[in-house]
Amino acid sequence: MGVGVSIFTITLGLILKFAIRPDAMNDPVDIHVIGVILIIVGGVTFVLQVLLMSRASRSGQDDRRGRLYDGDNPPKL
């Protein structure tokens, strides 16, 4: 799951939590609980994606190919 999907999941959760009235739907499932779950899942995946991106940039990896660059032998494109 990428950062964009995480933001979409958070947005969908916020819509389910705050924009839909529970009496508008006669489902046995609580829409607000599903909204909170989506907010939590989206937030956790967003934080994990940011941590993984910062970790990859600190380790000296080329983002496009995942090859290590040691300074003497640049990666071949």
TrEMBL record:
This is DUF6458 family protein. The chain crosses the membrane at residues 29-52. Residues 57-77 are annotated as: Disordered. Residues 1-60 form the DUF6458 domain. Keywords: Membrane, Transmembrane, Transmembrane helix. The keyword Transmembrane applies. It comes from Actinomadura fibrosa. Pfam families: DUF6458. Coiled coil: none annotated.
